[in-house]
Design brief:
This protein has about 350 residues and is mainly α. It has helices at about 15-25, 40-45, 55-80, 85-95, 100-105, 110-125, 130-145, 150-155, 165-170, 175-185, 190-195, 200, 215-225, 230-235, 240-255, 260-270, 280-285, 290-300, 305-320, 325-340.
Length: about 350
């Protein structure tokens, strides 16, 4: 199922109100940080020219999930030459509800496209296409700042002799993130500007519009650390990545697979985002395409075809039990809605 602008949940003061407002206005007119710096998805949704902004976001969300799935599979295929491993990677990634079902339920966000671009940039760098990788990482910086996770991923997917070029193809994207913050002036403390917005458009988190590093540390980071327990551990592991990825990672970590400590660093960088974000699962999953592909590569490497089949069957069984068919059905439903041009036309208030 998909949340339409007429659904009761739509009026909740969550992220889609900001991105829809950005898509309906010129770049820089909407100035509530950090949303105002994530211009990629809103601009692309408007440029698609469907007439209905909601449909534009729906297409972008489908594009993001497609990019993530395709290039994750290609990453595994390049390393293993195993069709089963590539298929398992695709099924596992599509089984992550916070990538698929969440993006299809509320497509007016930036996370699915950001995850897709991370997968694309990672694949290009792994193929030594550093120029194209540079373009990919720059595009990601316009979508969401967390795509800078590619800086940590780049050394792990490139050969030792070319790691320097891999890192150099990802690092300049930092300049794009900085430039966006310098160019678009945040209006979170501008009471006159905030008065022109609806409550849902101006609220960032905890019912307020405040957005600063000191506020995030005091009200998010410290609170998260003090309250961290089994619920949060479940959220960043099983609820985000699923049992197949978590179990596969633990299995792979026992094996002598190259780069497992760099993988830990990447996960640490991904997990660190929850210290500055009210959500947990969506920020953590920014590195999901690479994490899932790495797990399948690490588990399949050096095993017989019979064991590949066994591992794939186990993965499919677990994913079906986790309700992943509903996640995939959500994608199919959203694709059908695009072609049927269903849903209400929406213009931000």
């Amino acid at each position: 199922m998909e949340m339409y602008p007429v659904a009761p949940e739509f009026d909740l003061p969550i992220d889609h109100h900001k991105y829809l407002a950005m898509a309906a206005s010129d770049i820089g007119e909407f100035r509530v940080a950090p949303f105002c710096w994530r211009i990629g998805s809103p601009v692309l949704s408007r440029l698609l020219g469907f007439g209905d902004i909601w449909i534009g976001f729906r297409v972008v969300a489908i594009l993001g999930v497609t990019l993530a799935t395709v290039f994750s599979c290609l990453l595994v295929w390049d390393r293993t030459r195993s069709v089963l491993a590539a298929a398992g990677c695709a099924i596992t990634l599509l089984g992550c509800g916070w990538i698929t079902r969440s993006s299809m339920w509320d497509p007016a966000t930036v996370d699915s496209l950001a995850i897709g671009i991370v997968a694309l940039a990672t694949y290009l760098i792994s193929r030594d296409r550093f120029g194209l990788g540079l373009i990919g990482t720059h595009c990601g910086a316009f979508v969401k700042e967390s795509t800078l996770i590619v800086i940590l991923i780049a050394p792990l997917v490139s050969s030792i002799g070319k790691r320097r070029y891999a890192i150099l193809s990802a690092v300049p994207a930092v300049l794009v993130v900085i430039a966006l913050r310098m160019t678009i002036d945040a209006g979170n403390n501008d009471s006159v500007y905030l008065a022109t917005l609806t409550h849902a458009q101006r609220v960032v988190q905890n019912g307020v519009s405040t957005y600063s590093l000191s506020y995030l540390i005091q009200n998010i980071a410290l609170q998260r650390v003090s309250d961290f327990g089994l619920r949060e551990l479940y959220a960043i592991s099983l609820d985000s990545f699923g049992a197949v990825t978590v179990g596969g990672f633990l299995l792979a970590f026992k094996r002598s697979v190259d780069g497992k400590w760099l993988m830990v660093l990447i996960l640490a960088g991904s997990f660190s985002q929850i210290l500055l974000a009210s959500n947990i699962q969506r920020p953590v999953l920014i590195a999901a395409p690479f994490v899932v592909s790495y797990v399948w590569y690490a588990c399949i490497k050096g095993v017989s075809f019979r064991h590949e089949v066994a591992w794939l069957l186990v993965a499919i069984t677990i994913l079906l039990h986790d309700g992943s068919t509903a996640n995939i059905a959500g994608i199919m439903d959203s694709v059908a809605n695009v072609f049927c041009n269903s849903g209400s036309c929406f213009a931000p208030r």
